[in-house]
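Researcher: Final request for today, and then I'll write up notes for the group meeting. The sequence and the SMILES for fe (ii) ion follow.
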Amino acid sequence: LLLLSSSLDRANRCAPLPSAPPLVRIHLSPSPRLAAGLVGLQLTDGPTTRCVAAPAALALHPRCRALVRELGHPSRLLLPSPLPPLASWRLQRAFCRRLEPPPPPPAEEEEGGWCDVLFTRRGAAPRAAAACSAAWRAARRVPWLGARLAAAAAAAAAAARAALTPAQPPPLALRLVGRMPWRVKRLAARVWVQSCLTPSREGAEEGSPLLRVLPMRMLDAAQCDEAVAEAEAYARENEGWLTSRHIAFPTTDIPISRLPRLQAEWEARLFPRLAAAVGGVLGLDAERGERLVPLDVFVVKYAHDGQRELAVHRDNGLLTFSLLLNDPGDFEGGGTYFEESGRVYRPSKGVGVVHSALVRHAGFPITSGTRYVLVGFCGLESPRLPAGFAAWRFGEPSWFVSSRVVSDRQLTSRIWPASHAAAAPPRAMGADDSLAAVAAAAESAGDKAWYFKQHKACVQARGAAALVRRVEAGGGEAHEFWLDGDDLVGLAVRRGADGAEAVLASVLYREGPVAADTRRALQRLLPPPRRLRSRVRALLRRERLSGMVHVYVVPAERGARIGEELVRATSAQLFRMGVSHHLTLADDSGSGKLRAWYRSLGFVDAPGLIGMETSMVAHTG
Ligand SMILES: O=C(O)CCC(=O)C(=O)O
Ligand SMILES: [Fe+2]
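Model: Predicted protein-fe (ii) ion complex:
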């Protein structure tokens, strides 16, 4: 355990930069001065337009494309000098068709500031860690082995939880874990965190706002100079720079609570600006009581003859910003490093990099000079956060999520599953009258009251539960999937000309246990698909069965295949969440119409499955 733990620590270093690292510059203004040989891409992200400048070949590289997707939608391609036709055709195909010479740059060069992004050489360690966790997940799916591994992990998790949660006195045998050396406890904690992450929450999509790193202008040059001067004056007149305020990953720093002028500036301007920007990115809704909360804000000093770097870690909080306070020419190296993407961000003076605290990052080593940054850890108050989040995240010991074992995506999707909230903020159905209208229509259509009641509960879960995914289907229609506790709610919604959205259909799924005889029955009824790849996947996958509680289409929308499309889309979502089969009870009193409808959706008769004569099952996906 000790060996494993210390090798994990050694792996907490930044990957190195190649001697001439690929470099992309993010300009915080839409029309910067572009050097010849570079292409510019104007990126619109809500009300903000930034511009990314890179050599054409680099712009087409997958790592650069991922960066572009993270920053916004390409709206224009700016070419200061002509490119060979093939290169400009490829750029247009990759990004956007609007190709223009750059507009005249602003009189004041780099008015909005900029942030360089450098790509490191990806080390073997992150790849090895990813391979290990993939192997673990695959082993968990092997029928016999998986069950035993799951049991072992559950026992280890119980041990870790007992040791880490003093409120529950641990059983005698488990008290030993608490007496183990710190590293062993930490490893146990890592196992615990891993086991807390249920598979259904794994794999935040690329669009998750918590996986974005956003550079933004936060202070002007004079304010930066004043902040550095105030911090240095404090250090001179008092006990110097502090080095023990943080336990696991200490910085050389001074909290702004000891710097009255900077504290006043933070309260008056800096924090409101940050809160507004972050609110936009995460789609925070102040009316629902969602707000950013500052937890710890401090000036950090990296110096050639002092602390030169900060190892890869996660922060305490939900969002972190790191704002450069001095001139980038005052030091060499440095920057904020992100492990998963392998990028180093080097902003200009006064520009901050805002990112999730849960994404593994580091202070990239400086090789000369002095680098001052203002760092802020912020928390979040939101009913969308899982219950117990505060205790889980900020409890003691707070270092345990700094684990390489737990991926950034697993954490961010657990904490903030509403990955599409920012892209298309769903409006809650304030329209009680629209539900009332549906109720009246349901009554005159002779619908059973139970179905409407179910539909109403699903409509009300919208906005209150956690949005897992929203898939636009064109023509203003979309499918949304919400996790309401452990239930999956699928909704078909349509946006009207006035922007208001109406729910056209709902479906509710609940997962149930799969006993050995059910498993055998599923294998007999639905043999693995023909294609070899799917067969292998089906063999590795443990059967998971989700039952359809109801599907309901509002009376006015029937006959347009809305229900059918919603069931298909929900089946795909269940597949994505690791559910292998879905089940329905289709009792049509012998008419055969309903059963034929389900058959057209891929369901087969499964009489007697889970003890119900009318049951039908299908593969998800
Ligand atoms: O140096 C940086 O930019 C990162 C600092 C940081 O991550 C921290 O203080 O927690
Ligand atoms: Fe940090």
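Model: DSSP finds 18 helices and 25 strands in the chain. The CA atoms of residues 45 and 277 lie 11 Å apart.
Researcher: Thanks, that's everything.
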